[in-house]
Amino acid sequence: LTLKHPDERLVAFEKSDHLGLDISFRKTLSTRPWISAVSGGTLETWNIENPNLSVAPHDRILAINGVSGAALEMVEKLKDPNSSYVYMTVLHYGIGQEA
Description:
By secondary structure, this protein is an alpha+beta fold. It has helices at about 40-50, 70-75; strands spanning about 5-15, 20-25, 35-40, 60-65, 85-90. It starts with 6 loop residues before the first strand and ends in a 7-residue tail after the last strand.
C-alpha cells in the first residue's frame, strides 16, 4: 500500500465556448466538485501544453476564479461573462496516470 499526497496545481486557460471540462458534485454531500472528464476544448489544450501541470478525472477543484467554498458558486464562476480566463486551483491525484 502506497499513500501519496495530491499535488496542488493552478490551471489558467482562456475561456471559450468549449472548455472540455465535465464537473461533478453533490449539492448536499460534497463541498468540493471534482473533474469527471476532460474532453477536448481549451482545458485539453492546456494539458497538452503543460504536461507537468495537467489535470485529469478525479482531481478535486478547490477554487475557480478566486471563489472557493460551495460547489455551485464555483461552477457558476465558469459562466461569468465578465471573465475571459479560467483560473482553477485543483488537487491532482494522478489516478490512472504517471504523476
